[in-house]
Design goal:
26% of the residues lie in helices and 21% in strands. It is built from six helices and 15 strands. Strands 1, 3, 4, 6, 9, 12, 13 and 15 form an eight-stranded antiparallel β-sheet that branches. A hairpin with a 2-residue loop joins strand 10 and strand 11. The longest helix has 20 residues. The chain starts with a helix and ends in a 6-residue tail after the last helix. The N terminus is likely disordered. The structure holds magnesium ion (MG). Magnesium ion binds next to strand 7 and strand 8.
Length: 388
């Protein structure tokens, strides 16, 4: 019951907010379904943030994260052998960490996902052994395809496009922000898969990578999947795939692995950003229809403004007719007010004039919208158009 009341209060607030914010910023256009500062635009959903990790203690994931490894034996059930998916992984949990058992093979999640914010922490063996690509090597394969390199490069040169934090075979990290071997390194990765339509690339996809809070990859475009020795070409990815961790023969540890799925980009049907005319038009129709529905629950002035507002998103004869009639009723009522008392209605008249001027400016109402001239006449008569 409390939830219901909360919801009702929120929708009431949303309606009021929306009406308040109308006729203000640049209106919706061919590529933007919302106006600037549009209060009809959905509020961002609430997420409780997590906490940062320390060397001794992993942090807490944000409330909407999907945890892939939280430090328990039970978490192993979320993983499988990459080579033989029917078999459990031979990687083990040791002191709250997922440990690569060398020569046991890659491990991957049962869960499959695409675009995401991925968080994980890894630690190379405290005692360095081997050099170049043979020291503390593992790797984070997004969708099992493209590798963000995991390597102990604290004091260990190697080819730059195979460095820790490189998009392996594609792009070196900007800097080396590693802590000493044995210490936990934090990777925060933002992954966007390549998108193709009718065989044409419409977005190459990208990887953004932070290491210990330092930016390594800034929306680095993908070139296929990257790889060893051979340059790869752009190619479509499937919609989703598992997260895969590499066994490169070194006992690298992982902890605190979680991800958050990302919303669709505008090019794949998301509604934030610069939309195609078709997508913007479809969204505007939906917004207009919701506003008109909202208007049916309102009365008087609130209803009139909601109906007028709906015209910014979609022209609609019924909404125009009903709101025009309501504006005419308002003006007829104003005309009955004795001149000495009209000042008391100044706020209402100026508010309506603002809405009508806005709608006329962007041609959301017909050029011969009668109320426009009448409002202008009243305002001029009263001298309200003069700057004080
Ligand atoms: Mg590797």
């Amino acid at each position: 019951m409390r939830l219901l009341i909360h919801f009702v209060t929120l929708s009431f607030l949303a309606s009021n907010l929306a009406a308040e914010g109308a006729f203000y910023g640049d209106p919706p256009d061919a590529h933007h379904p919302w106006a600037i500062h549009d209060l009809n635009r959905p509020q961002p959903p609430r997420v409780e943030p997590g906490t940062f990790s320390s060397q001794t203690e992993p942090g807490k994931p944000p409330s909407d994260a999907i945890v892939l490894f939280g430090g328990t034996e039970a978490d192993l059930s979320k993983w499988q052998s990459a080579k033989n998916p029917t078999e459990p992984t031979k990687w083990i949990v040791q002191d709250g960490a997922l440990l690569c058992v060398p020569k046991s093979g890659y491990v991957r999640t049962k869960e499959e996902f695409g675009d995401c914010q991925l968080h994980l922490e890894w630690a190379a063996p405290a005692k360095p052994a081997g050099s170049s690509q043979n020291r503390g090597n593992s790797g984070v394969f997004l969708m099992g395809l493209v590798e963000v390199q995991v390597l102990d490069n604290y004091d260990n040169p190697t080819y730059a496009d195979g460095f820790a934090g490189s998009v392996y075979g594609i792009n070196p990290p900007m800097v080396n922000a590693l802590r000493k071997p044995g210490e936990w390194q934090v990777y925060d990765i933002i992954f966007r898969r390549p998108l193709f339509k009718d065989g044409q690339e419409i977005d190459p996809g990208a990887l953004t990578v932070f290491c210990n809070g330092v930016l390594l990859q800034d929306h680095t475009p993908l070139e296929g999947i990257g790889g060893h020795k051979a340059r790869t070409k752009p190619r479509p990815y499937p919609e989703k795939g598992p997260l895969q961790l590499q066994d490169h023969g070194n006992p690298v540890r992982y902890r605190n692995i979680w991800y958050r799925p990302l919303p669709a980009r505008a090019v794949e049907g998301g509604t934030n950003g610069y939309l195609t005319e078709e997508a913007a038009s479809a969204k505007k129709k939906e917004i207009a229809s919701n506003i008109r529905l909202d208007a049916t629950k309102l009365e008087g002035k609130a209803k009139m403004y909601r109906l007028l507002e709906s015209l910014c998103y979609e022209s609609n004869d019924a909404a125009l007719k009903e709101s025009t009639a309501m504006v005419a009723t308002f003006l007829a009522e104003v005309k009955q007010i004795p001149p000495a008392k009209i000042e008391s209605r100044k706020g209402d008249i100026m508010e309506l004039n603002n809405a009508v001027q806005y709608l006329a400016k962007y041609q959301f109402i017909p050029g011969d919208f009668a109320a426009k001239g009448e409002l202008e006449r009243i305002i001029k008569e009263q001298g309200w158009d003069k700057k004080k």
